[in-house]
Amino acid sequence: MVSIKIIKQEKSKLKDLATRRNGSKKPEWTRRKTDIFNDIEVDLLGLYGEYAVSKYLGVGIDESISISGDSGYDIEYNGMRLGVKYNHRVNGYLMVEGRDGDDIESGVMNDFSCDGMILVNGICKPPSNCECIKVEEPIMNIMGWLPKEYFMIDMVEKDWGLGKRYVCNVNQLLPIEILK
């Protein structure tokens, strides 16, 4: 695990980017709000994860704004297209949403169209509400990563009432350090 602190100035820049991205979406794309977070906060938490990974790997963050989200990956590093998944819970799962058209037997997952996925966790310990969004200088924990083929072998299907999710436990991840 690698911990990355996001300082106030970085947090402000990321909040501005999350707000601009959210404002550019079609109304039907602003669908990710929860009982705890509004849609901009969900985007911001994801950006925290992306930023922490980009800072660790020494690559730039994608600052593009599109009405339909990203192109299937968040970061390019050493010829690999990598997605970043943020889970605000300590030791939370690497979780990929199930989507229409997924064909697990054929290796098709619409929410996992990249070469590998990196998990970044926050500091929250359920059942209390998330504190990551409120912390002045949050610390992001890069927990590890999995190439897609490993994820497809190790993942299990879960549904906690929010729809189908494919998940791997933190202890199934490869150390992020081996990417460097």
Task: Summarize the structure in words.
The chain has 180 residues and is α+β, with helices and mostly antiparallel strands. The protein contains three helices and eight strands. It has helices spanning 8-24, 39-57, 148-154, and strands spanning 2-5, 75-77, 80-89, 94-97, 116-124, 139-147, 156-158, 165-168. The strands form two sheets. A five-stranded mixed sheet has the order 1-6-5-3-2. Strands 4-8-7 form a three-stranded antiparallel sheet, with no helix packed on it. A hairpin with a 2-residue loop joins strand 2 (75-77) and strand 3. Helix 1 packs across helix 2. It is globular. The mean pLDDT is 85.
Kindly list the characteristics that best describe this protein.
alpha+beta, 8 strands, five-stranded mixed β-sheet, about 180 residues, single chain, three-stranded antiparallel β-sheet
Give the SSE layout.
Blueprint: E1 2-5, H1 8-24, H2 39-57, E2 75-77, E3 80-89, E4 94-97, E5 116-124, E6 139-147, H3 148-154, E7 156-158, E8 165-168
Parallel strand pairs: 3-5
Antiparallel strand pairs: 1-6, 2-3, 4-8, 5-6, 7-8
Helix pairs in contact: 1-2
Helicity level, as a percent range?
10-25%
Q: Output mean pLDDT.
A: 85
Q: Catalogue the unreliable spans.
A: none
- What is the element string, with H for helices and E for strands? EHHEEEEEHEE
Shape: globular
Report the end-to-end length measured between terminal Cα atoms: 13 Å
Q: Structural class, from secondary structure content?
A: alpha+beta
The main pleated sheet reads as: 5 strands, mixed
Name the beta content range.
Answer: 25-35%
- Give the strand line-up of the largest sheet: 1-6-5-3-2
